[in-house]
Amino acid sequence: MDALVSERVRIPRGKLLYRQGDPLTTVYGVRFGTLKTVLTLQDGRSQITGFHLPGEIVGLDGLGKMAHVSDAIALEDSEACVLRFDELQELARELPSLQMQIMRLMSNEISRDHDMLVMLGAMRAEERLAAFLLNLSQRMSTRGYSATEFLLRMSREEIGSYLGLKLETVSRLFSRFAESGFIQVKQRQVKLVDMDALRQLVGSRC
Amino acid sequence: MDALVSERVRIPRGKLLYRQGDPLTTVYGVRFGTLKTVLTLQDGRSQITGFHLPGEIVGLDGLGKMAHVSDAIALEDSEACVLRFDELQELARELPSLQMQIMRLMSNEISRDHDMLVMLGAMRAEERLAAFLLNLSQRMSTRGYSATEFLLRMSREEIGSYLGLKLETVSRLFSRFAESGFIQVKQRQVKLVDMDALRQLVGSRC
DNA sequence: CGAGCCTTTGAGTTTCCTCAACCTGAGTGG
DNA sequence: CCACTCAGGTTGAGGAAACTCAAAGGCTCG
User: Fold this and answer.
1) B124-203 to CATH, choices 3.30.450.20, 1.10.10.10, 3.30.160.20, 1.10.150.910
2) DSSP class of residue B147?
3) Which of A18, A63, A164, B154 is least surrounded, with the fewest CB atoms within 10 Å of its CB?
4) Hey, CA dihedral for A160, A166, A171, A172, is it positive or negative?
5) Strand D neighbours among B 130-169, CB < 7 A
6) Is A180 in contact with A192 (CB distance < 8 Å)?
């Protein structure tokens, strides 16, 4: 796998790694930092389709059209390794396990997207934010960071865009969660105090 | 591709093709009929993640976990061809074009899901239904059916689940669209009268 | 240290949901 | 063949959730 990494790119905060419509010749593995992928409609409305942490692959969604279908933007100074898609394909031919690995990655992305559909389609604002925090917590912990205390790399507005809510709603929810003693928030520093309460929030509703 | 089709299965209306949690050894190509895929939460709430017409592949989302992550249910008497996944993988090794084709399929599904995320996250009820009808129209027409007149295979409730709305809301929207002269509806028979108006609905909002 | 962005909070509004009643049409049994 | 039943669909009234608009305070970064 490492043999594929032909080069690396640094993406300063706020800069694009790729742009909607760019021809797709490469996909990227996030090395460090955080990216968001954003899909923009003709009328200017946009939706964040994902936040991407180190170890995750971005760009796979454009493979069918051989062109990127979203913008990828760095939320903080980040680095990604470049995976030339033709080389990847070449190597996959010789290495069935890699082929399987790629499919697994894509399948997991589909699965993740379906979870998001449930979130946007069937959950209330409160539940969405709780689910978001728990998901982030889980991902941070698998990367060796604290599961309970971390820094949000994204603004309230970006969280809102991801969750299908307005920034004011997100802000109010943070305040409400803090009031209820579920979390502590100081700006973008978040501490999950009562994860069980959050889990119950997500799992509740009948 | 045809060599892969080891067998076919008929799925009578309302019956399951596979169930959430089933070990994944096969994926399916819809032959005729219509399927829905449904993701259910612990608390019983569920979300329809897709409607699947002939020519589409279902089951790819479970590949990462090697287990199905949704239920697939027939909306009408349907038939699917069974693609054994191990054979598929085997053949893909020899046939790079097939490998590419599978990736393309999965990528398209990711892309489609992202469009759904935008719909659920950034669009109003009215826009969602308009987008749904236009999408269905487009898919019917690529299958050789009329782009303007077709039979909905799903109930108002199922449309609602897919679009993140309640059945009453869907019903009211149908009535409103009909009143405005955009469509004609009689039960599940729909006729798109003014597709441009529908397109404008989707593309509006600033 | 100032400018601008991000965030918080409040008040009022809109959208969609909930609950409820009623209608319609397809299938069933007398 | 007709009345009955029942699931699916429509429509209305009222309410809740989230949005919009607005104002003010707090960080961050140049």
Assistant:
1) 1.10.10.10
2) S
3) B154
4) negative
5) 155-157, 167-168
6) no
Domain A2-119 has CATH 2.60.120.10: yes
Digit-coded pLDDT (tens) for A165-188: 999 999 999 999 999 999 999 999
Please answer yes or no on whether B110 and A107 come within 8 Å at the CB atom. Answer: no
**CB distance B117–A122 less than 8 Å?**
no
- In whole angstroms, what is the distance from residue A47 CA to residue A56 CA? 20
Q: Do A2-119 and A124-203 come out as alike in CATH topology?
A: no
DSSP secondary structure letters along B109-127: HHHHHHHHHHHHHH--HHH
Average pLDDT score over chain B:
93
Does residue A203 sit at the B interface (CB-CB below 8 Å)?
yes
| CB-neighbour burial class of residue B19 (10 A; exposed 0-12, middle 13-18, buried 19+) | exposed
Which pTM was predicted?
0.93
Burial of B14 (0-12, 13-18, 19+ CB in 10 A): exposed
